[in-house]
Amino acid sequence: MPNKSPGGLRHVPVAVYACAPTSLAIREAEERGRRYAGARLWHVAGVWSDLDPALPISERPGWQAVTSALSGGMIRGIVVVTPAQVATDTAEFASLGVLIRERGGFLVDVSGASPVRRTPGQLGRRRDIADAASGWSPQVHAFEGGS
Q: pTM for the complete prediction?
């Protein structure tokens, strides 16, 4: 499955997986996973979740669907909000990552992700571009106001 478009942008199909005891926590985790994937131009091919973190991962229906999607080539990566959603400790998370890599995929958690970086002056440049696109110019309006 190709992971690059002709323009060179990465469009990697991923799954967002969440496991939490409440629907609210699931929705928040899914949204955070989607934002993480979107910031990397990854295509979210599916979102799966489970409501019982006490179940072993191999018995969770949502996780089984994710691994089936990976095996079937539908996705190349799995995004989770925290390692605790799929593993009991960092060693188990690392082992799970190795297992997924052996199947041709990758596992990533967003807990250590930094917020979207902004460059100095980026907001101003975006405002100028939006103003130009709308036909509004601060120079023209300053001149009209001064006469």
A: 0.71
